[in-house]
Amino acid sequence: MAQCAQSVQEFIQDSFVPMVAVLSSQEAETLSRKNNLNFAELLRPFCRLTSEGHVRDPNNQLQMVKNLRICVNNLVSSPIPSSCSLSPSQYRLLGEVVLSSQPSEGAQATVVKTGDYSLNLSGTTPWFEAYRDNFLQLMPALDHEFLNHYLACLLVVSSTETVPLEQFLKLSQEQHRIQHSGEYTHPKWFIPNTLKYYILLHDMSEGDEQRAETVYEDMKQRYGPHGCYLLKINSRTISAEQDEQIPDPWSQYLLRSNQRNQEVLDLAPAANTAFVENSVCKTKVDLTEKDGPGESSSVETHPLQLDTDTSSASLQILSIINTELKKGLRDTDTLTPGNYGACLTLNDHDHIRQFVQEFTFRGLLPHIEKNIRQLNDQLISRKGLSRSLFTATKKWFGGGKVPEKSSSEPKSTYGLLYPPEAPELQIRKMADLCFLVQHYELAYSCYHTAKKDFLSDQAMLYAAGALEMAAVSAFLQGGGPRPYPAHYMDTAIQTYRDVCRNMVLAERCALLSAEILKSQAKYSEAASLLIKMTSEDSDLRSALLLEQAAHCFINMRNPMVRKFAFHMILAGHRFSKAGQRRHALRCYCQAMQVYKERGWSLAEDHINFTIGRHSFTLGQPENAVMAFRQILVNDSRQSATQQAAFLREFLYVYKSVTGENEGQLPELPLPYIDDSATRVFFGHERCLAEGEKQAATHVSLDQEYDQSSSAMWCILEEQVVSSANHGIVPGNFQPSQSCLNSQTDNLHHPLAVVEEPIIVELTFRNPLKVSLTLSNLSLLWKFAVDEAVLTDTTSEQMTGETISNEKASALQKDDFVTTEIIKEFHIGSEETKMARLRLLPHRMGQLNIVGVVYDLTSPFIGDTTSNTEGQQTPNLMMVRGRQDLKIQGPRLNLTKEDKMQIRHNVDRRLDPIITPPMPLMEVFFLQFPTALLCGEIRKAYVEFCNVSAVPLCGLRVVSTHPDFFTFGSQASTPPTHLTPVSTENCSAYKTFATSLQLGSEASEILILAEEFRQPSGVIKIPVTGDMLQPGESIQLPLWLRGPDQEGVHEINFLFYYESSEKQLKISHRVLRHTVFICASRSLSIQASACRSTAPPLHCVDDKGSRGTLVFIDVENVNTSESGIHEFHIIQVSSGSQHWRLHKYINPSKDNDCKLSSRERAKLCFRATRCEPHQGNLDNIEKYTFADLNLGTERIISSYTPCGDFFFRCCYTSAFEPVDLTSRTPNNSKSQNSGPTEYAAGSDVTRIAKTCNELDLNIIVIWKAYMIEDNRQLILEGQLHVGLQTFGKETSSLVPKEEAQEMVLLKFKSEIPPSVILPFPELSQLIKTNLHYPETFTHHFVQDSLCLVPVTLTLSNCSLALIDVIIDLRHKSTSLESLEVHSSFAWVGQSQYKLQLSQQEVVSLTLKACFFRAGVYNLNTPRVFAKPADQSSMCETSQQTASPALIIIN
């Protein structure tokens, strides 16, 4: 139980006090009424004695009486028999006592910490103490006990009476008549000879004091000095001493006296207040029905039952009743008078106090002491008889006990009624007298004796009373030998409740016992006792006792928190039924602390719902909103109908709140908005394609955000910005972000353009099982106008002002920002749905998007109204509200402080800066393919449209695949003497007719590389005048080439453009486009180059290159499913700074090269070095293009698109071309430079590289014929192969990336293999040729030795001085040599040592000696070479040519 202001001993003593009646004359009452009080009320504040009294017990032992209080009441007689229970008006008054006692505003809450709970509870319950005290004072006086019977009567007469003593005689006779005539059942008197005490009341301000003293002397003569008193009051006149402040001790006592006096009032007006809640909860109960205040409602309601069947008007009814109740309370307040004791001075207060003390000590206590002695003597005189004989005598002679039925008691309490003079009642009377004067030991003894007598007579009501008081007396003995007999109390309660059916007495017994148990820290027993006392007959009592039981659970040594909360809920429910809504609300709020966020979702919903309803009816709409909000915010497990009821009540409460605060919109909790998922899109939405046009994909809200692709676009933009700014990226460069989300960089204010829409995508989630409808959904914003651009008309009113669409007028709002409104937006049950809301800014400045505003509508399930046509339409509850968007940036995690605390960065995606107009470009593609063959060339068109009102310039494009497309080169105009036929053949190439001449040399064109180069891969788009005017569009051709690797390729274009105005906040804009191209296989080309074995003297057209052959293997690797019939190789071209294809070597003389599926062809060409050009000598890169056409059409490979793709592939294709920019100019001075230039910096690697280097790029141009839709299509394309080294084969096919094989985990480390360092490739420094007759005829009969002259030619292929050793003694062991006869010998010098300068040719004449006819391989000399400056290095064996066979006949 909660803490009480009094100790339990004080509480029990104050519950049972001597009762004193007051009988006043009319004039005496008038004197008292001057102070707005009757005489009994005048004495009440002074009824507690400040000093100790004494009584002597029957054994003449002195007994102290401490802190005694007496109870003084006006004598009110009634002929109606008193009931055992309280009257309805008394129940109503108890309810008012509880209602008026509320927790104070600033009361200190007690914090209870147990486990992981921390609860704020009210430490005291003054409403319970007020109820308890008033209940005990309202206890009716009953026949089976005497504690509430009057012991004395004060007879009060005014000194102004004509004959005061006669008046005393009249009052005395009146009291005697009331007590002894038998007409009156009320009041009841303790003993027949009631103490009469005579008081002469004298008014000091009006009466004659001398006369009063004379009358008082007469009274003392007649009634004795201790039987009367002269009380002087009203020493103060109101007018004279109005300023003096006299304390008012009466106010706190008057409520109780008013309650007693109200028994005579009409009960009807408030008969229903206790059941307002029941009437509202059950709509079938008529509000005008008058139930008894102490009775329960006829319809039982479960405390956890939610009101699903209430109509929408339920809260309206509650609010109406609530206002009426408040009005009623105000009316009662006005009746309460004030200004008590206005005619009394402090001396008068002391006079009254002295009188009460005099009366008690001189009159009352001696009277009680005398009666105790008399009763004791009577009982002792009877003790001589044996108990059994005494009992038998009583039975035989009746013993004065009359068995009669009590008409006032129910049938179950039929029992014996003792006459007043019965000895059992005398014992009880003596016990009660001893108890009242605090002689608890003697009282216990008497109660115990009486209990036995009553039990033996089966007088259960009397026995229960004796048991109750025996237990209390035993407890109050204080340190006595006997412990508190709790079982006495339990028996008494059970008897009162179950046998006697008297809940009032049972309740009193339980209240006393619970306080005693609590004082002994027996909280569990106290709680059990209180819970047992709850019943359906009184909601108020049950509520108070359940609340106290809850406090018992929380005050235990190990607090039972959940039991506390559960019983608080039950108490709150009973308070609610009793009409005590404030107390009900408090109980539910305290219990909520336990259930909150513990997973008890259904319990939470019930509590919040009840808190919401009570708060609303008590005029606390904000708290009601909070509670209902909690129900809807938590993920509810309620049924759909229940959720609909919650939503309905919630909307009604919200509507009432918004009605009161009309200025601002309330914050709505539904639907949920996922703030972090908010996306913001700036700029135009992409145009849809028209006809054959395909619009650029750009960025849209329909695309998913990808971190890696975003980084790729950022790199591309940085490249193009760098290119536009002469290779420098500006320091303030920020990548363009059209669509912002939680993963983008939102630290800076995004830049939006005036007159371009801003689209905000919000993610709504409906957590309920009922659908929601949002209507008139739009964004809330604030706009600060940029002062620099204010016009004269607006600047006066707008400077420094922030416009908001929440408060501004519609005309004013649309002047700055046009807000799109979605008329209706439905969200299904438990659905997540996106809404896109649009703003169109018209002025420059700072825009802040703060939230959304909408009408929340919920149709009422099963609740309809009829319209004028008789159709049923659902009732709609609509509330206008808002939700703010509060987006947190990413959590900071850099410093120690960041890691210790939770800090978030800023996120400015909803705070764009509106900037001046910018150009806006749309890009469309025509005839753009989705599938190409590898290397296929296709011509498409791209259209650029300026759809803004601002001219744009600086148009550029950058791509992840710069080798995929080209806009062509301005310099590539064909020669005038050639006739183009490309238009006739619909070819993408520039094609010219030419006559086919077998064995003719290639045609050459010299091209500057700068004309095709694009620095950093950024292409400047050739627009006339470099500017697009507003509304203008331009269409340009675009050549595409299929990727060399088969598969699906994602190709990204980034178009860049600027405004013609400079110094804008947005320096440039970009447009993205992504295409997917499916590349399928076409041809596979393998190419290799080798040196010719022909002697240099026979190669007249070699021009110093000493004969280089290029072999090209072409295979058709296209799959037959594609429908391509065959491929034609129509031209082979070369492009290089130093080499060119010279001639097509065609032994079959058949120029037509056709390949069906899986067919191969081998082509052979002779390559030569180019003539040294002046451009190359001047460090200007010039490329020689040589074309060898295999048909009747010639394609100029150096022009668009062939030349463009050639240069693109040189830089970016998968085969590794020779670095076109890093070669030094010395490389091209091969025939003019001397050895001295290389001597200083020469090393082995460079010598080997330059010796084997071949810089020749081959272009193979093909056509393919395909049947599609019964018509023949001609496809064309080109493949590139780069030859860098002699003898090394390269391929045009890029191998597919194979997935890495999984390597088995090895637990034992293996010994690493020994590292073999690569040795430089020096086996091709010297090229050898043998010149000899193929057939030689010799007569071996004439001469047995045949000598044949052979010339060995040595060519130095390097640019360094080479030491050469020729060894003729070597015997070949190769398989090729062993197949032919080897029995010949070289005669003459068998080893030579020579030194060859760079590219020098030396011939040696050798002689071979044969012994018989046959076929011989002469290629047996071994040649060793090393650079002359490498003295420490061994000579390397040189690579020999193919076998040199000679036939000796």
Describe the structure.
It is a single chain. The chain is built from 33 helices and 57 strands. The chain has 1449 residues and is of the alpha+beta class. The strands form 12 sheets. Strands 12, 24, 26, 28, 30, 33, 38, 40, 42, 44 and 45 form an 11-stranded antiparallel beta sheet that branches. Helix 19 runs antiparallel to helix 20, helix 22 (601-617) runs parallel beside helix 24 (640-660) and helix 23 runs antiparallel to helix 24 (640-660).
* DSSP strand content: 25-35%
Biggest sheet overview: 11 strands, antiparallel
The count of helical stretches stands at 33
- Give the N-terminus to C-terminus distance in angstroms: 137 Å
Overall mean pLDDT: 80
Which geometry do the CA atoms define? elongated
Count of extended strands: 57
Determine the structural class based on helices, strands and strand pairing.
alpha+beta
Rg over CA atoms, rounded to whole Å, is 59 Å
Helical percent range? 25-40%
Low-confidence stretches: 259-300, 308-313, 325-337, 385-414, 790-799, 972-978, 1099-1104, 1213-1241, 1315-1319
